[in-house]
Amino acid sequence: MIARIWSGESPLWRLLLPLSWLYGLVSGAIRLSYKLGFKRAWRAPVPVVVVGNLTAGGNGKTPVVIWLVEKLQQRGVRVGVVSRGYGGKAAAYPL
C-alpha cells in the first residue's frame, strides 16, 4: 500500500499531498524561526545520546543501550540512563 501511495497510484495520494505541503510549510517555519533567532535550542550541560525510533517495541533499543553503557563505562565515562519505559507512568516526574 505504501508503494502505491508513494507512486501516486492510490486515491489516498491525493488526500495526503496537501497534508504533506502543510507539514513542509510548518516545519520550514519552525526551522526559519531558529535561523532568525526567534527560537533558541537548549544545550545540555553534558553530552547526551538518545536511542529511539518511531516504533514502541521490539526493535532492539534496550540491548543497544546496554551495549553503549558498557562500552562507555569501559572508557571510564560516568553514565546515566533515563527511561520512561513503554507505557510507563509515575505519580511524579522526575523520580
UniProtKB/TrEMBL annotation:
GO terms for molecular function: ATP binding; lipid-A 4'-kinase activity. It comes from the Bacteria. Keywords: ATP-binding, Kinase, Lipid A biosynthesis, Lipid biosynthesis, Lipid metabolism, Membrane, Nucleotide-binding, Transferase, Transmembrane, Transmembrane helix. Pathway: Glycolipid biosynthesis; lipid IV(A) biosynthesis; lipid IV(A) from (3R)-3-hydroxytetradecanoyl-[acyl-carrier-protein] and UDP-N-acetyl-alpha-D-glucosamine: step 6/6. It is an enzyme of class 2 (transferase). It holds the Pfam family LpxK. The chain crosses the membrane at residues 12-34. InterPro entries: LpxK (IPR003758), P-loop_NTPase (IPR027417). One of its GO terms (cellular component) is plasma membrane. One of its GO terms (biological process) is lipopolysaccharide core region biosynthetic process. Its EC number is 2.7.1.130. The keyword Cytoplasm does not apply. Transfers the gamma-phosphate of ATP to the 4'-position of a tetraacyldisaccharide 1-phosphate intermediate (termed DS-1-P) to form tetraacyldisaccharide 1,4'-bis-phosphate (lipid IVA). NCBIfam families: lpxK. This is Tetraacyldisaccharide 4'-kinase. It comes from Salmonella typhimurium. The lineage of its organism: Bacteria, Pseudomonadati, Pseudomonadota, Gammaproteobacteria, Enterobacterales.
